[in-house]
Amino acid sequence: MQAVDTNVLIRLLTQDDVAQAARATSLFRRDDIWIAKTVLLETSWVLRSLYAFEQPRITAALRSVAGLPNVKLEDAASVARAFELTDAGVDFADAIHLVSMGPAASFATFDKKFAARAKKLASVTLL
Which CATH code for domain 2-74? Predict the structure, then answer.
C-alpha cells in the first residue's frame, strides 16, 4: 500500500502538470492507495484557494478518488459523514472538523455562517 501526499492528489485531479499527472495516474492504477484525512483536508483547501473550485466540485473530485476500489481512507466512515455534511451546505474542511471532534459534546466556533449551516446537523456552539 502506498500513502499519497496532497500534491499527488492535486496532480491526479487537476492534470495541470502533464508529467506529474501521468505519474500520479500510473500510481493510482497500479497500487493500493492510502489517503489520510489531513491530505483530503489540504487537497480541499488547495482546490478552493489555488484552483478556484467551488465546494460541489471539490466534493465530487474527492468522492471520485475515495470511490476508487484500490483507495483506502483514514477513518472512512467519518469522511463519508463529512461528504454528507457538505451535501447539506457545510464546507468540507468544517465538515472534517465536525466529524473529528471525538467525544466532545459540542464544537465551538466564531464562524456564523458555518454555525448556521451546521446547527441542524451537529452540535455547534457559536461564540
Answer: 3.40.50.1010
